[in-house]
């Protein structure tokens, strides 16, 4: 087995020995180190430490090479080494940081400068939490690194990488980067014109990171001030762009924007620049709003909403100012779709960050979105953006917003999902017939839907956006939707699924639309309407057939849909842990002044011979007249009923029945359910006391022979006490006497009649929807 040290030594000798070929073998070296973890800190012997020391020495030598490609390979290997090994990082971070800063200070290729900046950012970031390295490396080298970044930022090719490094330094080391805040802000503002290749996402993150250099007490105010100045910059650009439009009112309390470059007076040159600037700043604000902050901040919702309304109030056919050129007004109408797209993105970011704060503008947003949907019905990009914004508003505002825009949105979405027949153009004009039946040219033949070439649909992205809106509407409003609207949605969804299955479209776009159709059908199943028949039978067949589709995503959706349909058809109770039965209560002991009786045991099923012996003993005790206490414990066939359970006595032989009959003849005053012996007058007081004892609760058994036996230490007389039906007279009489059962039924009947009369007298209060 090859050890890690042997593998690393082979790389050193075979691929890093020749400086001119290191760059060629760099991808293979990085892959070998990453996949085999050759630089991890799990050295088991001295050979690993020696090989790693040779690795560090070789990297330092390659970093000082005269060839630019070799230096670039060495920088890449240093970055990978720091990511894998903490020990190698701690031992070489000082020398590597010094050499890389020297590369940035000298004229170097763009490739090496970019790699050096990225590696230095990693070196400084890994010093967080390490006090000694932070004091020796970061505190001494980071200020120089920031100054070099500001110098390199003048190169347009290096602006993106320098901005990323500066924002990272401000976020991780705010106190050490506070002195360069003004210089970095000027660099950020120079990019707001849209003349550079820097992404607005990067500028937004950099502006948000620059606020971290302020203290926690001033962070919220600085963050809000920067946002208001960005909004002011947009208003200043709109003043020139909307010069030909008669706006109803000006924006009050406007904050001055950042100083940007001047605009040419001619609208031909000014409008493209203004449009690009406005879109760039709007995207920057959108990223700035959604960036993480150090402390909670207040979002100026009113100012941002006023900015959006100002742009939305300019539409096709709005009033033009007097004495303004019509050509400029026509050019402005051409720019409106691009303006609305950027404003939709800004409004979506505001909805995400403000959340409940935008609830008060729900009706205003509904009017704006409905107007945008009607005005841009033929504009693909704007219509998709409006659909996405409607879906976001539905998720944020819920039922009230859905009820406001329900009919218009459903009508527009269904129109976008309908199939359109392609009209065939004949090259040769047919001759007109003199006689014949007139045919309607606008009639669509049913054969057209059987051929994929004869019908067409809207673009796939529009269909997917419309289906997403319908899915959200069904989720929020499906249970209480109007029957006609709900039927129209279900009809178009099911018909489109069946058409797709019949035509068999297999391209990527149609597969994506099919997935959205199946999701919409699943939402319809999960939100049933009481005024409409359920789609459950159709959905089961559709999902079953969809499990054989070639698209994996569609098969997963169909599997989930079948599981939900099964739950709808075969409802199940949630798993409930059953309570364990309580243990039987202990048998109470009976006490007496003359004798003490003890409960010995209960026998479940005794043999017939034991039962015969017990009956014989009981009969002998009954016949003895001199015994002080005589009690008979005959066992009857009638069950003994306790307060909680029913105890059934096992069956007896004919001999037992004869003995019991003889005992009952001797004692004619006994009850039919149980037998009791005549007690002498001397022991009646004791019997009355014993009868006053609390009743014994019988345990739960299927068959039981109850007997109590007690013996005195010196006396030879045996006292046997049996539990008779008299002790359970409150509970046994209702079960042993048939007439009382009949009375119980009558009583139950009267009770039900009384309950019905009570129900008739009780009045349910009416609930009005107005309340």
Q: Compute the number of strand runs.
A: 6
- Kindly provide the radius of gyration, computed on alpha-carbon positions and rounded to a whole number of angstroms: 46 Å
What multimeric state do the chains show?
single chain
Spatial strand order of the main sheet: 1-2
Helix content range of the residues, please?
Answer: 55-70%
What overall form do the CA principal axes indicate? extended
User: Main sheet, how many strands, which sense, barrel?
Assistant: 2 strands, antiparallel
Given the structure, what is the number of helices? 27
From the N-terminal CA to the C-terminal CA, the straight-line distance is 82 Å
Measured by DSSP, the beta-strand proportion falls in: under 5%
Q: Uncertain segments of ≥5 residues (pLDDT<50)?
A: 434-446, 589-604, 625-771
By secondary-structure content and strand pairing, the structural class works out as mainly alpha
Task: Output mean pLDDT.
Answer: 76
List the SSEs and their pairings.
Layout: H1 4-14, H2 22-36, H3 46-63, H4 68-84, H5 86-105, H6 110-125, H7 131-152, H8 159-172, H9 181-190, H10 200-210, H11 216-241, H12 267-290, H13 301-312, H14 326-354, H15 362-375, H16 380-397, H17 399-417, E1 420-421, E2 455-456, H18 460-477, H19 483-503, H20 508-526, H21 536-546, H22 552-569, H23 608-623, E3 640-641, E4 646-647, H24 654-666, H25 684-691, E5 708-711, E6 718-721, H26 729-736, H27 738-761
Helix pairs in contact: 1-3, 2-4, 3-4, 3-5, 4-5, 4-6, 5-6, 5-7, 6-8, 7-8, 8-10, 9-10, 10-12, 11-12, 11-13, 12-14, 13-14, 14-16, 15-16, 15-17, 16-18, 17-18, 17-19, 18-20, 19-20, 20-22, 21-22, 23-24, 26-27
